[in-house]
Amino acid sequence: MSLKNSNLAQAWLVLLLATLFGTALAGIQVKLGPVIEANKIKETMAKIPVLVLGDDLAAELAADNQSLTIKSRVVEVNKNGTTKFYTVYDAWLPEGKMVGHVVKADGQGYADKIELLVGLDAQGKSITGLFVLDQKETPGLGAKILEDAWRGQFKEKSTEKHLSVVKGSGAKEDEIDAISGATISSKSVTGIVNTTLANVASQLQVTDSPENNKTPAVQNKEPGKNKERS
């Protein structure tokens, strides 16, 4: 009996190929995983000035050949039997004035996990910016969460109010306009922001100056990642 006519042989061939491809993909992930994480950390550090200062002030600081002092810490939150860790980046101007924080957050989107950077003012009372660090939402629909116009809706929103997603009616003070055809992605991002603010906004204030803060200054690595365990 030829291989072409043998169902058993074809099944073993499919299983063999699936195993080979699976092993190859796992090997690629293991090899590229550290590189991907290193690139995310590099991108995070590059975005922090814009997220806490805005485009114009960040550009002025760079033009003066100055930079923020950025230090990271991990905030642990225990709720309903679940412990979650948030990486928080605190930022100071060159003269030592605290200017804000950036919190790394993640959650489930429509297609896969969405990773965000949420910028907050020094008191943790207002959102200063939002950046999508990683996403795999539908191209042309959910992937519009990347667009500046949509992300810009979060800027200056109070951290003390729960944000709601509305469709086509015009967003009010505590509302976010949904992306047309991508309500789930819109709600996913807004939900991640709401959860993050509820968990960490009250733990952001830092009294130490950067010189007295014992946390090592961030150079090119991140001391902790978001992790959640039950």
TrEMBL record:
Cofactor(s), by name: FMN
GO molecular function, one term: FMN binding
Main location: membrane
Keyword Transport carried by entry: yes
Enzyme nomenclature, EC number: 7.-.-.-
Location of region: Disordered: 204-230
Family annotation (InterPro entries): FMN-bd, Ion_transpt_RnfG/RsxG
Regions of compositional bias (Polar residues) in chain numbering: 204-218
Domain FMN-binding: 109-200
GO terms for cellular component: plasma membrane
Modified residues (FMN phosphoryl threonine): T183
Name of the top EC class for this enzyme: translocase
Keywords: Cell membrane, Electron transport, Flavoprotein, FMN, Membrane, Phosphoprotein, Translocase, Transmembrane, Transmembrane helix, Transport
UniProt-annotated location(s): Cell membrane
Membrane topology label: Single-pass membrane protein
One GO BP: electron transport chain
Superkingdom of origin organism: Bacteria
Role played: Part of a membrane-bound complex that couples electron transfer with translocation of ions across the membrane.
Description of how the protein assembles with itself and partners: The complex is composed of six subunits: RnfA, RnfB, RnfC, RnfD, RnfE and RnfG.
Family: Belongs to the RnfG family.
Protein name as catalogued: Ion-translocating oxidoreductase complex subunit G
